[in-house]
Structures are given as structure tokens and as C-alpha cells.
Design brief:
Helix content is about 50%, strand content about 10%. The chain has about 600 residues and is α+β, with helices and mostly antiparallel strands. A hairpin with a 4-residue loop joins strand 11 and strand 12.
């Protein structure tokens, strides 16, 4: 009996996650054959290996007793390869027809294009309850993007189908049980004894003349694509590397079940995201993944895709936790919460995503970038109110990010700065973003037509900062800080709105104020001088308007406000005060519908 297995991390990229996911999928099927319909399978990251704990224990000794052939991922049938494939059962678990799925997707999208905007949006954001599936053609296959990758140059479908076909051949020969025992023995200890597993396989394979190696596709092994990859090169051949075929089969199975892949919007390039588990049950992972998949139905540009992947997965996790905690939760939803155990942070449940960028070269593809995107560690769900708060924060962040286009120099820079923040657990990149964003808000505010640029909600901004750095609380609670942030807002985004939308030119617009304040923030004396100069002119302008114009009037800054901000600078430094003032000064006040009504 075995209740723990171990999968060594040997690459540091998503290959390890694919291998683990493939083995977990195998374990789930083995439990099914032993009469356990819902085993608990918990995957935990232990640094240099993944531990897989199963309840109840798996009776490994029974594995060789006549287990029939079973597929873990379907073979992909196309026009070109259908004649070469073996006879397969008429079962979607054994084979998927690429052309049929392509036609099904085209019919759905044609009907989708005729829908009104609210229904299109419901489908795009994963609000399936509001989408009329009942009067639509069948939706695309949930793994359609995997099919498109497999069938695109340089045709990884051949290697994928090869290992899937080999597995079925093992089943036809009655050796499935023995091979499953081999794999369970391989992963029963760490370090994994791969040499012993290969030796055992060769003994099984010899009567059948089965091979023990398979090509390492770069789509499952990004660091082992075509090229000179040998540890001790003795030539310049550019062929793929070879690995033990059972490991390549498990990676392909894992890719089919957990990878998210798609074309980069506006190009033939491709990005693939593979989740990296922290501590989570397989059932809970699958539930969150399905929720997440609904939000990833359409392609995105490269940097924005990174940001939205993190935001949307985090939202999917929160939605599942919220549903499980509600009074109307179903037994299945309560079960998912129980499976999550003591996990309160999305980043404990899932560390983040491995991201790989593939550059299209026409008839080939090259791995251009390999990265890891952390889930935000500052999000922690301890009670129902937290779920509501963080959902609002993430919704706001997505709406802000979706304003930017990657083909514009200033906006791609904003996207890159925001990506640096969303995958980090500190506020430095966020303040870089809010400083640059202050200038963008003002420049976009000059456009007469179109939607006004989105601003951070002041309450959401406060919660975000407090979640990251609670020690900043005295600053945010200071009346002097709030009043000066108010003065900045009145002199920038509010004054601009009044000028452009209401033809109210009583107050001048201070262009570039945010950048000016942050530029001088490295030196406390210079910052205080610049800030004091602004506040002096702000109060003078207020006095002048009150003498010559009717009200309502905006509030002036008091001497006590300036004294308080100087004290905060002495305690916390001018740099953080300046960046916080800019962030809040260009935010909107939530209690009012429009900032132009603030007075």
C-alpha cells in the first residue's frame, strides 16, 4: 500500500508540472480500477520535488492484475494522419477529430457574432448563467487551443500521437498493469530512480520490440527543443533530444489537461501558461481551473495576457472560495472548500504560472522567452468580506489594464510596469505604475470623445496598499495626507474634467504635477519645497476664485495639514509620501458618482 509519491523537479520550468499532472491523472484512473471513485489526491510543493499524498492508500501490489487499456488524453485525428492511425473506439476519450471540432467552433462563433453586446460579454468573461447556450450551437471543445497548438507548425501532433499510440499498444498487449507498477515504483521515492525504471521497461519491452526513447518536443520541454543540446557536444546536428518515452507520455498527458495556450493577438506567435501548484488537492485544482478557463476564451496581446492570466486565475480561486462559504453552497462546493484545507491565500494554493513565448518562424517555432508569473501574495481570504473586497480590487485592475494597447509606446510601458507589480509582493513597481499613470490620465483626459480614462477607487487603493504594507496605515489615516491628496486631485483630474465637460475654467489644470512631485522625492528638502510651492499656489487660486466667482468652492489646505505631512515625511521618508500622494491624488472618491461634483 502506498499513500505518498514524489516527482523530482529536474528542469525548473513547466516540464516538471506537466510530468506531475500526468502522473496524478494516472493515479486517479488507477483508483477508479480499484473501486475508489473520489480519492483525495493532494499535491504539495517541497522545493526540489512535488509530494503527492493519496487517501486512501493505493494498493500497488494489485496493479498488475489485468488492468485494461485506458486513455488519459485523446489522440488527435486530422485529414493528413487519419489513414496512419490505428483503429480506435468511437469514444472522445480515445480520439478527437480536429476537422469536426474546427467546424463546430466555426458554427458557434458565427452564431456568437450575431448576439447583442451584453451576451457576448457574458460569454467572454465566463458568466455562463447569463449566456443563452440553449439556443446556440454546441460550444467549442474546452481544449481547442491545445488542438490548435498540436496541429500547427512544427507539427508537434506527430510526437504527441506517437506516445499516445504507444500507450494504447501497451494496453493491447496486456502490460498496462506492469507499466503502471513501474511508474508507481519510480515515483515512490525521491530522488526518483529513473535508471531502474528504464531497466525494468526494457525487460517488459523486449518481447514486443518496443522502443524506450521518444523525441522531447519543445512544447512540452521548452529548454530541449531543436538545437545543440548535448551536455558534451560531439557534432552540430540540430535534431530533437530523446527522453524515456513514458516520461514524455506523462508530460503530453499533463499538457493536455492543465496547460493554457493560445495565439498572441495580432500575430502567429504563441504563449503557453502552465500552473505551478503550492498545496492543493487535484479536485480543487480542477474546479478552479474550469472556472478560470471560462475567463480565457479569447486571445490577448503578450503583456496583457500575462497580467490577465494572474488576475483572472486569482478571481476564479476567490469565486470558488466565496461560493463554498455562502449559505446556499452545494455539497460539491463545500467539498471543494474542505479540499482547500487551511489555504487562505491564492498564492499558497497555486504558486503561479510558468509562461513560455514561442516565436512563429513560418514552418517552425522558436522558444523566445521563459518566465514565471507569481500569484499576488498580498491577497488573503479569511472571511466573506475579504472575498468581496478583493474581487472589487481585481475587477478594477482588469478594467484599467484593458485600456492599454501594446502597439503604443507609452501604454506598453504602463503594461510592463503593472505586470511587474501584479507578480511581485512589494509596492515599488506599483508606485512606478501610478506615477506614470498620472500623466497618462491627464493626456487621455484631453480627448473630447470616447470613454473617460478609468481611475483607481480610493477605497480599493487603500485596501490594496494596506494588504501589501500595513505599516503605511498611519499615513493613509492622516487628515493632513488626505487633504493634500484632495488638493492634488482638484488641481489635476477634477479641474480637467470641469474644463472639458462643463466648460468651467475657474481652476487651472496642473499638468505633470504627479511626475514633478515624484521627481523631487529623493531629497526631502527639495520635495517639501516643491510641495509647499504647489500648495501655496493652490490656496492663492482658491482665494482668487472666491473673490471673483460664485460657489461652490473647493476646500483649501490648512497650515496644520502641511505640518502633519512634514511630520510624516520625517517618519517615513519623502519618497513613499510623494508616491502615495500621487496615487491617491489621481484616484476617484467612491462616495460620489462623479468627481466633478466634489467640492
Amino acid at each position: 500500500m502506498s499513500n505518498r509519491f514524489y516527482v523530482d523537479k529536474t528542469t525548473g520550468i513547466f516540464t516538471d508540472e506537466l510530468l506531475t499532472a500526468g502522473f496524478v491523472r494516472l493515479l486517479e484512473n488507477l483508483f477508479h480500477f480499484q473501486g475508489e471513485a473520489d480519492p483525495e489526491i493532494v499535491q504539495t510543493d517541497f522545493g526540489h520535488y512535488y509530494q503527492i499524498e493519496v487517501t486512501p492508500a493505493l494498493d500497488v501490489a494489485r496493479l498488475e492484475a489485468g488492468i485494461p487499456a485506458f486513455p488519459l488524453a485523446p489522440i488527435l485525428r486530422t485529414k493528413k494522419n487519419s489513414a496512419k492511425l490505428p483503429d480506435l473506439p468511437d469514444d472522445p476519450f480515445y480520439a478527437a477529430d480536429y476537422e469536426a471540432e474546427k467546424e463546430k467552433r466555426a458554427a458557434f462563433l458565427a452564431a456568437y457574432s450575431e448576439l447583442e453586446g451584453t451576451l457576448k460579454r457574458a460569454y467572454a468573461i465566463g458568466d455562463d448563467d447569463a449566456f443563452p447556450f440553449e439556443r446556440m450551437p454546441p460550444p467549442p471543445h474546452e481544449r481547442w487551443n491545445v488542438f490548435t497548438l498540436l496541429n500547427a507548425p512544427p507539427m508537434p501532433i506527430n510526437g504527441y500521437n506517437q506516445v499516445m499510440t504507444r500507450w494504447l499498444a501497451v494496453g493491447e498487449a496486456g502490460e498496462i498493469g506492469a507499466v503502471c507498477r513501474l511508474l508507481c515504483d519510480l515515483f515512490s521515492q525521491t530522488p526518483n530512480e529513473l535508471d531502474a525504471a528504464v531497466k525494468t521497461w526494457k525487460l517488459l519491452a523486449k518481447p514486443h520490440k518496443w522502443k524506450d526513447q521518444a523525441s522531447a518536443s519543445q512544447f512540452f520541454n521548452p529548454s530541449q527543443g531543436k538545437g545543440i543540446n548535448k551536455a558534451l557536444p560531439n557534432g552540430v546536428g540540430l535534431g530533437n533530444m530523446k527522453n524515456f518515452w513514458l516520461l514524455e507520455w506523462l508530460k503530453a498527458v499533463g499538457f493536455y489537461h492543465i496547460a493554457f495556450t493560445g495565439r498572441v493577438k495580432g500575430s502567429d506567435d504563441r504563449k503557453t501558461y502552465v500552473p505551478s501548484a503550492g498545496r492543493s488537492s487535484y479536485q480543487a485544482q480542477r474546479a478552479v481551473q474550469r472556472q478560470f478557463g471560462k475567463k480565457m476564451r479569447f486571445g490577448e496581446t503578450a503583456v496583457r495576457a500575462d497580467i490577465l492570466t494572474i488576475i483572472r486565475y486569482t478571481r476564479a480561486f476567490i469565486e470558488k472560495v466565496e461560493a463554498a462559504q455562502s449559505d446556499t453552497a452545494t455539497e460539491a462546493e463545500k467539498m471543494y472548500l474542505a479540499l482547500m484545507g487551511t489555504v487562505k491565500r491564492p498564492s499558497d494554493f497555486l504558486r503561479g504560472f510558468h509562461a513560455v513565448y514561442y516565436k512563429s518562424l513560418g514552418t517552425a517555432a522558436a522558444t523566445m522567452n521563459i518566465a514565471f508569473l507569481n500569484l499576488p501574495g498580498w491577497i488573503e481570504i479569511r472571511q466573506m468580506e475579504d472575498a468581496v473586497i478583493f474581487q472589487a480590487i481585481l475587477d478594477e485592475q482588469e478594467s484599467i489594464v484593458r485600456q492599454f494597447a501594446e502597439n503604443k509606446g507609452e501604454e506598453i510601458e504602463l503594461l510592463q510596469k503593472f505586470r511587474d507589480f501584479i507578480v511581485a509582493d512589494n509596492l515599488d513597481p506599483f508606485f512606478e505604475f501610478t506615477t506614470a499613470y498620472s500623466s497618462w490620465l491627464i493626456s487621455q483626459g484631453e480627448n473630447k470623445g470616447g470613454f473617460p480614462p478609468r481611475k483607481f477607487d480610493e477605497n480599493n487603493l487603500r485596501r490594496l496598499i494596506m494588504s501589501n504594507e500595513p505599516q503605511l496605515s498611519p499615513i493613509l489615516e492622516s487628515e493632513g495626507f488626505r487633504n493634500i491628496a484632495y488638493a492634488i486631485r482638484q488641481s489635476t483630474v477634477t479641474a480637467q474634467y470641469r474644463k472639458n465637460k462643463m466648460d468651467d475654467r475657474r481652476y487651472g489644470v496642473r499638468y505633470g504635477l504627479g511626475r514633478d512631485l515624484v521627481r523631487q522625492s529623493q531629497y526631502p528638502d527639495e520635495f517639501v519645497a516643491v510641495l509647499s510651492d504647489f500648495l501655496h499656489k493652490y490656496n492663492a487660486e482658491n482665494a482668487q476664485v472666491m473673490e471673483n466667482r460664485s460657489g461652490p468652492y473647493r476646500g483649501s489646505v490648512k497650515t496644520s495639514d502641511i505640518e502633519e505631512i512634514v511630520r510624516l515625511i520625517d517618519e517615513h521618508g519623502s519618497d513613499v509620501i510623494a508616491k502615495l500622494l500621487v496615487a491617491f491624488g489621481y484616484a476617484r472618491v467612491p462616495r460620489q458618482t462623479n468627481e466633478e461634483n466634489e467640492n
